[in-house]
Amino acid sequence: MKVVDVHASVNEDLCKGCKTCEMVCPVYAITVGKREKKFKVEINHKRCVGCWNCEQRCPEHAVEMKPCDPYIIGTDVSQFDYNEIEALCRKARFHPKQLVCYCSGSRAEELAAAILSGAKTPDALVLATGVGAGCGIECNQPILRFLESAGLSFERRKQSFQWLGRTITVWEVPSKLKEDFPVFRFEEDRQLFDRIINASVEP
Ligand code: SF4
Ligand code: SF4
What we know:
The protein contains eight helices and six strands; from the N terminus they run βαββαβαββααααα. The chain folds into two domains: 2-73, Alpha-Beta Plaits; 77-197, no CATH class. By secondary structure, the chain is of the alpha+beta class. The radius of gyration is 19 Å and the shape is globular.
């Protein structure tokens, strides 16, 4: 879960219409268009999760984060059958209590609960949990792995730098690669991760 206390806002006098902000927004909250001779940037504050990505990447420094009335986004894990949560976490190869987002401090169990509550796309998971509402680096792959494990496919927006695809995990490294590069100790890593993932959940 995450406390949202800022929203993005754009100074259209500085905007050059490059659409970088639109492409980096994890929840598709930004639309860049044109009005007369100026660029018009619309930000849907009902979706903005205050991640700062647009502010940090705008080449014209046209985006400013402004304080808003704080509110929490998150999914209450206790509302769902924990057996189902555990099963989905282990299928996605995460321990339920494993941190999946350092910015929001969210654990794998919350992503699983959000999927059980009906979230079906990466942006829906961000809005339901706050995972991905920060740097968007560590949490990107857990989100994609959870959706895949739940059998959910989604269409990625073409004009977006977000949700480009899942990377290979240690469970999928081809045998030939393991043999050719023993120095990387893939098998030891896999065994270690398996032990962590399958450890029991403390009450
Ligand atoms: S990234 Fe900055 S310059 Fe580019 S469209 Fe967005 S606000 Fe305008
Ligand atoms: S702060 Fe994040 S969520 Fe809000 S509009 Fe910018 S990129 Fe999108």
